Amino acid sequence: MTTATDARVLAHPTRDEIRLENVLHALSDPMRLRVVRDLATAEGDLSCSYFDLPVTKSTTTHHFRVLRENGVVRQVYQGTAKMNGLRRDDLDALFPGLLDSVLGAVERQAQRLGDS
Amino acid sequence: MTTATDARVLAHPTRDEIRLENVLHALSDPMRLRVVRDLATAEGDLSCSYFDLPVTKSTTTHHFRVLRENGVVRQVYQGTAKMNGLRRDDLDALFPGLLDSVLGAVERQAQRLGDS
Which of A88, A106, B35, B50 could form a disulfide with B46 if both were Cys (CB 3.0 to 4.6 A apart)? Predict the structure, then answer.
């Protein structure tokens, strides 16, 4: 875990510290899957406020923290905004094909349940 | 969910009721990943007692229940033994490639961490 000496530098696991079971946990929630899907198709990083999730602001913050602490997203401050990027390089290096199969499953389920 | 009128018939979600986020939750634990890995390579169903997990018996029972209730394994009684089988057909139909990518990631992580 990178040490967050500055309160504005957020702690992240290094690539070596990322664990499959933790990544699966981070992905095991509909709101977090929605965030990951949006980040996967975004051109660049997206701020937390970009996401209009049907949950409270504190729950949204919680979801982003779970994604960050388990190695799925990288969060950096830009001014007062927290910017989020998918750690695709790290995840693809550690678990080839996993992220793409999860993203495919997200799309498929959205179509099946009619809530894409 | 199939109704368990007989206490010895265990409740399972139907294929339509299986949700991606629940499957990922069921897989987000090292013990449950170990069970799924063993079931994936087994010739047939395996009894709960086949698995010698380094946890208590009640925790083992809990792990199997999580796997069953989220649609990852099918459990049936044979005499006094609970037999477990991976619901590969259902999972592959709903989320093509997902199970195989998780199983590949399990192997890769075991090799990386030297605990295969």
Answer: B50
